[in-house]
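=== Structural record ===
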Amino acid sequence: MAHQEDDQAKVWDLAEDIGFCMLTTQSGNDLRARPMSAHAERDTNAFYFLTDVASHKDEEIALHSAVCLAFANPKGQKYVSISGKAEIQNDRDKIRELFAIPAKAWWDSPEDPSIRILKVTPSFAEYWDSPGTVVSYIKMAAAAVSDTKPDLGKSATVKM
């Protein structure tokens, strides 16, 4: 069980460190991804986002609540993909709690009635944590000339 808890902690650490993700929803028969600023909260086992009531995300989530959050730090070779269920909430206290300077690009204040909370409860995740681009390339080059497989860090599939 400790291994599972370590992997869960790694997922949360990576998501918190990276901060921004691509939120993928289903739009009809297609998948649609857009960048979002994630507020990761381990204690509630949820990711929170501010969104606008007029956005298409609300409609898409009402029809298909399964979503994917894809976090990436390509320079550090760190990635995490989180699958879960999304819901739209109108929790004004939570909106005020999450409202920060970046939100001012879309809304004047947390009191704007068009702001909603998009809450994602994760069900499982996958992560890839490499030692970094330069080290990875060196390990791949060494493996290529020695006909061995390179150790490029850790990856795991994690039940959340």
User: Anything to note?
Assistant: The two ends are 13 Å apart (CA to CA).
